[in-house]
């Protein structure tokens, strides 16, 4: 009776083609255990093979784990953590995977050491002992507080075409320019005297300097090195034909050419020094520097942002006869 009632309910819902939904198949499968098999054809509206197929499908679905939600296994490493691991390895060439793991744990990223090793290995980064050492850029940044560099700049006079040599120094930490002097005959004695003048100018700041970077020009004599050695400043000689070790001073020389000497005619040594002194004041007190977050060497802090732009006026100050302009806010 139960089987017949169920069949009638299915037939009443569908007047055309009879379709057994999964819930409809449950009843015949359950009642088949109570009814002998030889009477299935009299009780059920489907063939016995169909009921057996339904039962097999039900059993197979019970043991089929492909459609069931799997238990979460080991979660994948987040992309942000991978980027941080590669950044630490790139910025610290002496750190191995366990040292990087410790730094990540201190930052709040608990990652296994094996995971760090897999990230480095997948990125093609060798273990710490086989990585390349610090580059000149990294070395100069690490030693910036104690570094000063020097180099020569030459200018040809407009009328006589006589070449004038200018010796400049630059502090790496502040990018402050020091103008040593200009001469047409840069002998070893003259260069040594400029080193003495610089030591007097820097005074107590010489104690903070640890290294002087210079090239292998013959004008830098033993007496020149002795002036700095007396102040416990070690001399670092750049390799031949290698401008990068003295990149900061080389860039300063290029700036002096692009912003000053490429646009004026120099008459003599006195004229060159007058131009350089005026430009050095602009360079140290006003000109922004990218390496110092757009701050001039003489300004340790960023200015207060302007809030009301309508009430402020911009004043222009001409430098070098208008060759360079400086701008300041005037209330």
What does this structure look like?
The protein is an alpha/beta fold and 331 residues long. The strands form 2 sheets. It has a 5-stranded mixed β-sheet with strand order 3-2-1-4-5, sandwiched between helices. A two-stranded antiparallel sheet has the order 6-7. The protein has 12 helices and 7 strands. The chain folds into 3 domains: 2-62, no CATH class; 79-130; 140-292, Nucleotidyltransferase, domain 5. β2 (163-171) and β3 (177-183) form a beta hairpin. α9 packs parallel to α10. The mean pLDDT is 82. The chain is elongated.
Rg measurement, Å: 41 Å
> Mind summarizing the main beta sheet?
5 strands, mixed
* Average pLDDT: 82
Low-confidence stretches: none
What's the SSE pattern?
HHHHHHHHEEEHEHEHHEE
- CATH class wording of the largest domain: Alpha Beta
Roughly what fraction of the amino acids lie in strands? 5-15%
Number of helices: 12
Structural class: alpha/beta
Distance from first to last alpha carbon: 100 Å
What is the assigned CATH homologous superfamily of the largest domain? Ribonuclease H-like superfamily/Ribonuclease H
Q: If strands are numbered along the chain, what order do they take across the biggest sheet?
A: 3-2-1-4-5
Please provide the count of β strands.
7
Overall form:
elongated
CATH topology of the largest domain, by name, is: Nucleotidyltransferase, domain 5
Helical content, roughly? 40-55%
């Amino acid at each position: 009776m139960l089987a017949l009632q169920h069949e009638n309910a299915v037939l009443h819902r569908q007047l055309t083609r009879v379709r057994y939904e999964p819930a409809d198949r449950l009843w015949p499968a359950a009642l088949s255990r109570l009814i002998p098999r030889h009477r299935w054809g009299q009780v059920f509206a489907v063939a016995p093979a169909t009921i057996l197929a339904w039962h097999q499908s039900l059993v197979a679905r019970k043991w089929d784990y492909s459609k069931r939600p799997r238990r979460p296994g080991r979660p994948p490493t987040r992309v942000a953590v991978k980027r941080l691991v590669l950044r630490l390895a790139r910025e610290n060439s002496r750190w191995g995977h366990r040292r990087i793991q410790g730094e990540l744990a201190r930052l709040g990223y608990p990652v296994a050491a094996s995971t760090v090793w897999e990230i480095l290995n997948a990125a093609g980064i060798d273990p710490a002992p086989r990585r390349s050492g610090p580059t000149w850029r990294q070395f100069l940044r690490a030693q910036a507080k104690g570094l000063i560099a020097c180099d020569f700049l030459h200018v040809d006079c407009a009328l006589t075409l006589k070449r004038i040599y200018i010796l400049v120094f630059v502090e790496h930490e502040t990018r402050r320019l020091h103008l040593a002097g200009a001469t047409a005959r840069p002998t070893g004695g003259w260069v040594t005297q400029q080193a003495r003048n610089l030591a007097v100018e820097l005074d107590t700041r010489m104690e903070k300097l640890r290294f002087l970077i210079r090239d292998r020009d013959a004008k830098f004599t033993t007496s020149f090195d002795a002036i700095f050695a007396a102040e416990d400043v070690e001399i670092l000689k750049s390799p031949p034909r290698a401008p990068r070790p003295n990149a900061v001073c080389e860039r300063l020389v290029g700036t002096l050419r692009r912003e000053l000497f490429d646009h004026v005619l120099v008459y003599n040594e006195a004229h060159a020094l007058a131009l350089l002194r005026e430009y050095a004041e602009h360079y140290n007190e006003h000109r922004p520097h990218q390496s110092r977050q757009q701050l001039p060497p003489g300004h340790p802090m960023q200015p207060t942002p302007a809030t009301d732009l309508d009430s402020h006026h911009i004043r222009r100050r001409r430098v070098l006869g208008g060759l360079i302009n400086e701008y300041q806010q005037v209330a």
